[in-house]
Write a structure and sequence with these properties.
heterodimer; A: 113 residues; mainly beta; six-stranded mixed sheet; four-stranded antiparallel sheet; 12 strands; 0% helix; 55% strand; globular; B: 115 residues; seven-stranded mixed sheet; 56% strand
Chain lengths: 113, 115
């Protein structure tokens, strides 16, 4: 069975500082990996996804993530955050032969001035 | 209107009430989903519909009853709910759940409070 672990439930950070949101997954088969963002009072929207190819994936709003197969991780990074990045971030995994995306519990990123 | 819309945005109901949540997608997608989002817990997939046919029921109690009359509309009928059913209910759609292009597009959710 697949699972997704987001290691931090909350990450406070100052504006313009770098941030890394951690995600580890477990699966016995190949997977596709996603990061979604949920702004207050809104639904989730896709930030980026890894399907195949380059392990460094660039997404919207300056975010990027790196797929590390040996460590089964897909950490999300941004070199300099803005107040507007305050939101909840969800890592998700879909096995390549399946149809059910499994989501992590989310990490709340709080950017302080 | 574009994207995925959900109504109502907020709902308060008693345990003996019957209510329905509505979701509409304007993206031409064929698959629609209901998720339950509770505080501090992962999103829980409840139901999946593909081309109007239910393909997944994730052991959801029968007090939740989905309906998908066409590929653009999805309902969640609620009756005799419990306080622990209070949560944010998210609707999503995708082109189809069985392709690598499966990006799900989410609505803003219905915040449900059961008293």
């Amino acid at each position: 069975a697949q699972s997704v672990t987001q290691l931090d439930s909350q990450v406070p950070v100052f504006e313009e500082a770098p941030v890394e949101l951690r995600c580890n997954y477990s699966s016995s088969v190949s997977v596709y990996l996603f990061w979604y963002v949920q702004y207050p009072n809104q639904g989730l929207q896709l930030l980026l996804k890894y399907l195949s190819g380059s392990t460094l994936v660039k997404g919207i709003n300056g975010f990027e993530a790196e797929f590390n197969k040996s460590q089964t991780s897909f950490h999300l990074r941004k070199p300099s955050v803005h107040i507007s990045d305050t939101a909840e971030y969800f890592c998700a995994v879909l096995n390549t032969g399946g149809f059910k995306t499994i989501f992590g519990a989310g990490t709340r990123l709080f950017v302080k001035a | 209107e574009t994207g995925v819309t959900q109504t109502p945005r907020h709902l308060v109901m008693g345990m003996t009430n019957k209510k329905s949540l509505k979701c509409e997608q304007h993206l031409g997608h064929n698959a629609m989903y209901w998720y339950k989002q509770s505080a501090k817990k992962p999103l829980e997939l409840m139901f999946v519909y593909n081309f109007k046919e239910q393909t997944e029921n994730n052991s959801v109690p029968s007090r939740f009853s989905p309906e998908c009359p066409n590929s653009s509309h999805l309902f969640l009928h609620l009756h005799t709910l419990q306080p622990e059913d209070s949560a944010l209910y998210l609707c999503a759609s995708s082109q189809t759940p069985r392709t690598v292009q499966e990006t799900q597009y989410f609505g803003p959710g219905t915040r449900l409070l059961v008293l």
